Amino acid sequence: MTKRRSSNDRQQNYTKLDNDYVRNTDKAINRKIEARKRKIRRIAFFAIVPVVIIAVLLNILLNQNETLAAKEQKKVEAKANLSDLKEERDSLNLRIKQLENDEYIAKLLRKEYFLSEKGEIVFIMPDEKDKKGDIPEKKDKKDDVSEKKGKKDD
After folding, report:
1. Is the pLDDT of residue 3 over 70?
2. Least CB-packed of 50, 128, 134, 146 within 10 Å?
C-alpha cells in the first residue's frame, strides 16, 4: 500500500483524487490529528493546573508555619513577662501589707531618716567608701595641700 500525501507536502508530483472515499479519509485523518491535539492540551492542562494549585497551597502552608512560629515566640515571651509581672505584683502586695503595719513604718523611718525614739541614741557607721579612705573631704584637703606646695615652688 502506498502512503498518501496531503496537499501540504513538499512534493506535489501527483494529482489527488476527488471522490467521497478520499474526502472521508482526509476528514478522518484530520479528526484524529485534532483529537490528538485536544488530548495533548487536556493532558497539559490537567498536569499544569494541579501543579500550580499545589505550589500555591504549599506557599500558603509555609507562610502559615512562619506566622505560627512567630506567634508562638511572642506567646513564650508574653508568658515570661507575665511571670515576672506576677512576681512583682506579689512583692508589691507584700510591701503594701508591710506599710500598713505601724511598727514596720517606725522601723523604716528610723533606718532611712535616722529618727530615734525617746532615750535612743543613733550611731552612723561609715559606708564602704569611707572605710577605704575615699571620702571626698579628705581628697579635697590633700589637693589643697599639694596646690599650696606647688605655688610655693614657683
Report:
1. no
2. 128
* Distance separating alpha carbons of residues 6 and 18, to the nearest angstrom: 12
Q: Cα 31 from chain centroid?
A: 60
| Phi-psi domain of 114 (left: phi exceeds 0; alpha: psi -120 through 50; beta: other) | left
Q: Cell 515571651 identifies what position? A: 77
CA dist., res. 67 & res. 132, Å (int): 58
On whether the CB atoms of residues 37 and 28 are closer than 8 A, the answer is no
Residue-wise pLDDT tens digits, 30-69 = 999 999 999 999 999 999 999 999 999 999 999 999 999 9
Return the amino acid letter for 87.
E
141 compared with 129, residue with greater pLDDT: 129
CA distance to 37, 86, 117, per residue, from 98 (Å): 91, 18, 20
Distance CA 103, CA 100 (A): 9
Please check whether residue 129 is in contact with residue 135, taking contact to mean a CB–CB distance below 8 angstroms.
Answer: yes
**Which residue is it, cell 508591710?**
98
Distance, CA of 83 to CA of 86 (rounded, Å): 5
